[in-house]
Amino acid sequence: MGFDPLKNTFVVAIQVVSIIRQPMPESKLELYKRWGWSKDVALSAFKRQPHCMLLSEEKIIKVMDFFQNKIGFSSADIARYPLVLSFSLEKRIITRCSVIQILLAKGLLKNDLSPLTFLQFSERCFLERFVIKFQDDVPQLRDVYWGKTDILELGSQSEKVSGA
Question: Helices (DSSP H) in 35-150: which residue ranges?
Fold first, then answer.
């Protein structure tokens, strides 16, 4: 498979392969193929993050659906950062994507932000870079991040303020 035996991912891959039963890897491969990954792309994602083969089908479907159908990320973007598949959809992915969407919509971030890398930042780093830094420009950003304000509510509030 091309793993470097001196790297930590080699050990993790061995653990994953020893945990999973034979039919499961094929079913996971088929599941990822349904979301646009080729066998080579799935193996590449496995080499980057072996745990992506241990996720439940339900988890994979929910996260891939959100990224591709709601946010518009390509399957190739997700394959480059397979770690994001293991993050909590409700507690991390949706809240951070909401913050980034607001900042992009308000022109406070450049659109050249590398897809999905913002999900990999620690909570403290994300808060400092994207929430605290822009809280004067978007006071509700902290509430959006903590799930107290829905991104749709924020849109209707800004329409009322602008007189639309």
Answer: 39-48, 57-65, 75-80, 94-105, 123-126, 141-145
What does the alpha-carbon distance between residue 20 and residue 125 come to, in Å, rounded to a whole number?
Answer: 34
Residue among 36, 80, 35, 88 at smallest CA distance from 59 = 88
Amino acid of residue 107? G
Tell me the pLDDT tens digit for each residue of 3-49: 676 676 665 666 666 566 555 567 888 999 999 999 899 888 988 88
Q: Is there a contact between 128 and 96 (Cβ–Cβ < 8 Å)?
A: no
Whole-structure pTM value: 0.77
SS3 131: helix
Give how far Cα 52 sits from Cα of 14, 56, 69, 160, Å. 13, 9, 20, 44
Tell me phi and psi for residue 83, to 5 degrees: -60, -35
User: Which class for 82: exposed (0-12), middle (13-18), buried (19 or more C-beta within 10 A)?
Assistant: buried
Residue 135, C-beta contacts closer than 8 angstroms, at least 6 positions apart: 141, 142
